[in-house]
Structure formats: C-alpha cells, structure tokens
Specification:
Elements: H1 4-12, E1 45-46, E2 58-65, H2 71-74, E3 88-95, E4 101-105, E5 117-124, E6 130-142, E7 145-157, E8 161-163, E9 167-170, E10 173-175, E11 178-184, E12 194-199, E13 205-206, E14 214-216, E15 220-230, E16 235-244, E17 256-261, E18 267-269, E19 280-288, E20 293-299, E21 309-316, E22 322-326, E23 329-336, E24 340-351, E25 359-360, E26 366-368, E27 374-377, E28 383-387, E29 390-391, E30 399-401, E31 406-413, E32 419-421, E33 425-430, E34 438-441, E35 444-447, E36 455-461, E37 464-465, E38 473-475, E39 480-488, E40 494-501, H3 514-521, E41 523-525, E42 532-550, E43 556-574, E44 581-588, E45 593-600
Parallel strand pairs: 10-24, 26-33
Antiparallel strand pairs: 1-2, 2-5, 3-6, 4-5, 6-7, 8-9, 9-11, 11-14, 12-13, 12-15, 15-24, 16-19, 16-23, 17-18, 17-20, 20-21, 22-23, 25-27, 27-30, 28-29, 28-31, 31-32, 31-33, 34-35, 35-38, 36-37, 36-39, 39-40, 41-42, 42-43, 42-44, 44-45
C-alpha cells in the first residue's frame, strides 16, 4: 500500500490544476504541453497558473511533469521509501469551484512509467468573484492497489472590471449587493478646465472627478452615465470680417487694416489691404484673455493731416462671437473656443440571491446505521451537499442518502452563479448492536457473544415472538427457524441473527427433577463482582454436575465437577486473572443445564 504521506505529496502536486470553476472534465480540448527543457526525468514540475477575473473570458493551458517513482518524494520526506514505481494517476473530480469554467486534460489516465508530461486546459468565464475552497479528488495506483485521496485549496476570483473611454468600473457585477468603484479615465491632473457629471443609475449623482464607491443592493441592470467636458484651449480670435466701413479715399477704395488693443493696452496691427472693397476678411490667430478689447478699422494714409484714418471703433470680449454694429458700419468676429465633451454609458449587473434552500427529511434526527435516511433539497438542481463544511464528492442531486454521522448542509447555485446555503442539519447514525450469534448444544441455544446489560434480547420461532424468552439462551422444542433479536436499550437500534435448527429428541432441554430444586435455591453473589464469585444452591437428591464458565467467544472453562452430590453446595471462585466482561455461568447436569449471566468488573 502506498504510504499515506506519499499520497498527500502527490495530491499537492496537482494544486496547479485549479484556478477556475470546473463543471466537468469536458469542453476544453486541445491543451498544449510546454515544460522546460532542463527538467529531470523522474521529477515533479508544476507550471504557474494565471489568475482569473469574474465575467471575463478565460482560457489557459497548464503543464506538469509527474514523478515516475516515489524517489522525488522520498528526497524531502524520510518516512517514504524511494524507488516504488507509480502505476497510474488519474484526476477524477474537482469540486466546489466557481460556476462558469470547464476543464479537460490531454489524457484520461497518466502512466508515469512511460508518460510523465501532461497538461490541462481551463476555459470559460467565472461568473462570481470570491474565495472558493476547492476539493480535488485523485486516484493513485501503486502495486495494483488504487487509493482515492482528496485535499482542499483556496481559490480567489478577482472582481470584474469594465473599461470605456470615460471610466473604468471595478466589480461591475455580483450577487445581492454590489459595491462598485469608479476610475476616471480622463483625469484633470490638477489642471483647470475639466468638469464632470456622473449619474450612477441608483438615484445618486456626482460632479466629482473621482466619485465615491456606489452601493447597488437590488437585483437589476443599472446604467451609469458619464460626461467629461474638457475646456482647456481658451478663446482664439481667428477671423474678422469687415462688412461695412465708414471710410475711403477720394479717388479709390480704402487701404483697410485692423488695430486690436487688448485689455492690457497692447496693440496688434494687421497688414493692410490696398484699395479693398468691403466686405473683406482678416484671418488671425489671436489668443484672447479676459477683459474688453478695442478693435479699430483703419484706412492707411487716408487722413487730411497725413495720418491714417480711423474708420470705426468696436469693443468686444471673449464671448462676442458674431456681428458687431457701429452706426452704418459692422464687422463679424469669429472666436474659436474648442471644448471636448466625452459621454459614455456602462452597465452594472446585480443578480438575485436565491432563497435559502431547506433540507427536508423525516424525523427524528438520530437513526440507526442500517436505516435509509434521505435528505432532500427544496431545489431540484444546482445543489452541492456538504458534510462538516466540506463538499461531498458527487453529491449534486436534489436528494442525498446519509451514510455517516455529521453536520450536513446544502449549497444552491442559480444560473447567475449566486449561492445560498441551508441551515446545518446534524445527523447521528448509531451503530447496530453486535450480531447475536448462537450455537446449539443438545437443543440448548446459547448466545456465544453475549453483551452487557444495556441490551435486550428476544427469541422468535418462525418469525413468531416467543413470549417470555428474553434471556441469553433458549431451549429448542421443535425443528424450525430460530431468530434472536438484540436491541440497544439506549439507542433503540436492532440487530438479529437467524438459523435453521434441528430438534434432537434424545435430549431434554430445561430444568427438571433435582435440577429444579437447584435452580430454585440458586444464589450467585455478588453480581457484578470484582474478584471472587460465590455460588450456592441446594440438592435434595444425589446427582452429578459440573460448573462451567462460557466467555463471549463461546469458549467453555470448567470450574468444578461433583459426583453423587447432595445437600447444600457453597463455593467461592477467584477470577483475579480474568479479563473484565460478561460471562455465562453454566451448571451442567448432563441432560439439562442452568445458565446465568455474570459480570466481572476489575
């Protein structure tokens, strides 16, 4: 048999196989083996496994190398003998994983003697974030002996995230209540000109750049609306169109140009247009600051004193986009104010938590180990039964037959991966009393494995109760099927033994004649006893008899033998070297016997 420590070590070797929910060994074919080239032949290698994220597609290949013998294990554990060949290793089950993932190995069974490398493909998408206690079941065959072993390992599925142009949601789906955090993907980095508007879909809004986490505690789909306004480019005067100007030369059109004076008194003068007729456009690139500007339309050399004529005056600011009028003159300003607006919407999904499953069973909560006790879940599917908090391998149906004492519960998982756990139901299965086998000694049926006083006995003939026959022996009076039923007085559990017995007419079972007097006067004291047992009875006629003790295995030991004895018999017997327990004291008169149960307490 493979040493227990070896099995545990080999079990640990497969920890790498588990990172996501494994609903079955199917649906993920085609994994590729990829182990390092420098590995030893008889060694153990475990590939690393990427982590998973809830509601995100997952497909990963994990490679491993199995040991050919117990030698790699013995190198770190002196209690294991090296050099024992491993015949077969099989991954049979992986229980209690998050829903949404399937798995498949490249081989059904691995034969380490000739094939040491393998892989498993994990695929799907885990539906729910959380920490899962996984239960991995392996079969290992060594020296033609197959043993099943299991172990547990914790698995973490990270919360899901959703990324869009405006923001990132973390933990955007879950069961019952979801706490979602938000990351702004258009940060201001401390600069001005950024404004934000959030509508979280749960009745809350915000204008913060980085809002607080939000709670969603009712099942449903929530739309999160986001808007970022980026106003960082300022205002730029890009064009002035002079529509009409109140100036001109006597014999030709004016030579127009612009003089723009900012709020600080600084002047910007444009080149002039010679002999230009209105309307005329002046293309500019003048960044505007806060405050009022003065714009003068001028005619070069148009003045009577030899200076330029000032045709029209206008006052404007950053927001004066459009047409300005001065008497019969007018201009049109084009002021560019680029503002970027980003609007995005994303969704949050809150799935319903199922109602707590109930365990249905017939009362009481304590049973005997031969009874068929069935626990039933109130859900027809999606169940996983637990014993003492650990998943029971293969126990996923609605009904589960109890096979051992312990604390039972059932976990129900709905289609969204949300779970609910039942209340714990304690079940106690009491052992049956030992089988009350009996032998036949000349029509006297005697129990050969008598039990202590907390057991009751009842004899049956052909399944009919024999009134008054409740002792450890029964005198057979006719051929037939005899049943002895033993009941544990404390638990009520019953066991029985049946045998077809043949009546021998040459022997008379029971107490007659001189034996009757002996039985009527028989005294056995003390009982129970510690060391010495006293036996006393009276005989009114001479007779031969022997006094014997029968142990639980049916072995008979003679204590005394008398011939032609009559009168009062009184004798004390020492049991100092005997083991404590229940014995049958027998007074054998040949054709009849007297039996009494005695208890030795050391």
């Amino acid at each position: 048999m493979l040493p227990k420590n070896t099995l545990q070590f080999l079990t640990l070797s497969f920890l790498f196989l588990i990172t996501t929910n494994l609903q079955g060994q199917s649906g993920c074919p085609g994994c590729q083996i990829n182990v390092p080239n420098n590995l030893g032949v008889d060694t153990i290698y475990l590939d690393s496994v990427p982590s998973g994220m809830a509601n995100m597609a997952y497909s990963q290949d994990v490679s491993f190398r199995l040991p050919m013998t117990t030698t790699p294990v013995a190198a770190t554990d002196s209690t294991i003998s090296p050099g024992i060949g491993l015949d077969e290793i099989k991954i049979t089950q992986i229980n209690n994983l998050p829903p949404g993932i399937e798995w498949e190995t490249n081989e059904d069974v691995y034969f380490p003697g000739t094939e040491t490398d393998g892989c498993v493909r994990l695929c799907g998408a885990p539906l729910a974030a959380g920490t899962y206690l996984l239960d991995i079941i392996l079969e290992v065959k060594v020296l033609f002996i197959t043993q099943e072993t299991s172990f547990q390992r914790e698995m973490v599925v990270l919360p899901s995230t959703s990324v869009n142009d405006g923001f990132t949601l973390t933990n955007n789906s879950g069961c019952g209540e979801v706490v979602v955090s938000f990351q702004n993907n258009i940060p201001s980095n401390g600069n001005s000109g950024y404004t934000y508007e959030w509508d979280f879909g749960n009745g809350n809004t915000s204008t913060s750049e980085n809002p607080n986490a939000q709670v969603y505690n009712n099942p449903g789909t929530y739309a999160v609306d986001y808007q970022a306004v980026i106003d960082t480019s300022g205002y730029t005067l890009t064009k002035v169109r002079v529509i009409d100007a109140d100036c001109g030369d006597f014999v030709s059109p004016p030579d127009l140009y612009l003089d723009i004076i900012d709020p600080n008194g600084n002047s910007i003068v444009t080149p002039n247009y010679v002999d230009i007729s209105t309307p005329v456009d002046f293309n500019l690139n003048v960044p505007l600051i806060s405050g009022n500007y003065t714009l003068v339309v001028k005619d070069e050399d148009g003045g009577l004193n030899g200076s330029d004529d000032e045709c029209d005056f206008y006052t404007f600011n950053q927001f004066s986009n459009g047409i300005l009028v001065n008497g019969n003159s007018s201009i049109e300003l084009t002021i560019l104010h680029p503002v970027d607006t980003v609007q995005t919407t994303d969704s949050i999904y809150v799935y319903p938590v199922p109602n707590q499953p109930q365990i249905i069973f017939k009362s009481p909560t304590t049973w005997c180990e031969d009874e068929m006790i069935v626990f039933s879940s109130t859900y027809a599917s999606g169940n996983q039964w637990l014993l003492n908090g650990n998943p029971i391998n293969g126990a996923t149906e609605q009904n589960w037959q109890i096979q051992e004492s312990g604390a039972y519960s059932v976990v129900y998982t709905n289609d969204f991966g949300c779970t609910a756990v039942s209340e714990i139901q304690d079940a106690t299965l009491f052992p049956l009393p030992p089988l009350p086998e009996f032998g036949n000694d000349n029509n006297l049926l005697e129990v050969i494995n008598a039990e202590p006083l907390n057991f009751a006995f009842q004899w049956y003939y052909e399944n009919t109760l024999l009134q008054g026959e409740t002792g450890l022996s029964y005198c057979l009076t006719q051929t037939g099927n005899i049943t002895l039923e033993v009941t544990d007085i404390t638990t009520g559990c019953v066991n029985s033994f049946s045998s077809d017995e043949t009546f021998n007419p040459d022997f008379v079972c029971g107490v007659v004649g001189v034996e009757e007097v002996a039985e009527q006067t028989l005294g056995i004291f003390p009982n129970p006893f510690n060391q010495n047992l006293n036996i006393e009875f009276e005989m009114d006629e001479s007779a031969d008899f022997s006094i014997n003790v029968i142990d639980l295995l049916g072995r008979k030991i003679e204590l005394d033998r008398q011939f032609n004895f009559s009168g009062i018999y009184l004798q004390s017997f020492n049991f100092n070297d005997w083991n404590s327990g229940v014995y049958i004291l027998e007074i054998d008169f040949g054709k009849s016997k007297i039996h009494r149960r005695v208890i030795l307490q050391n």
